[in-house]
Amino acid sequence: MFEKDLCLPVGRRAEFKEMLGSRLSDKDAANLEDDENMLIAVGDVVSLTLRNLGVRPDLSVYDGVTERHEMTEFADLVEDEDKEEVVNPAGRITSAMADAIGSAVSNGNPSLIHVIGEEDLALLPCVLLSPVGTRIVYGWPGLGMMLLVTDEAVRSKVAGMVALMEESE
Length: 169
Description:
By secondary structure, the protein is of the alpha/beta class. The chain has helices spanning 26-29, 44-52, 73-77, 95-107, 123-129, 152-163, and strands spanning 6-7, 22-24, 39-42, 59-62, 65-66, 69-70, 84-88, 92-93, 111-117, 135-140, 144-149, 166-167.
């Protein structure tokens, strides 16, 4: 599915603005570590919030930017930790980012992926490449954290969204 880089067509952007999952409070987020299922954080603020609550996700995907403003607090926090860096322009899912997510999900060790560009669509490969039951926390501008638990219905919806994307060169 992610063998080639994919691009979100400008005319389809509205179809990608639907929230998936439900809002997550800091109080409920603090309890995420108690579950045995995989936990993925997508975004700088979400990744930082979880770490500050004492929760270490199995995978954090971040780019050093939040709502188009530099956000280096999480990047500074994990500066000395091992991470994979991938290039992923805005509105795209590069095969490199999808490969990094797939590898991180399958290795079983806590992982960091630093995206050079934007992780705005990283949620999609996270859903499709992680096991059923994976909890994915991501940010929603103006609302805060969202929690999505993967199941076949969510995967089907996300696969349909990815099918709307175009191959890029």
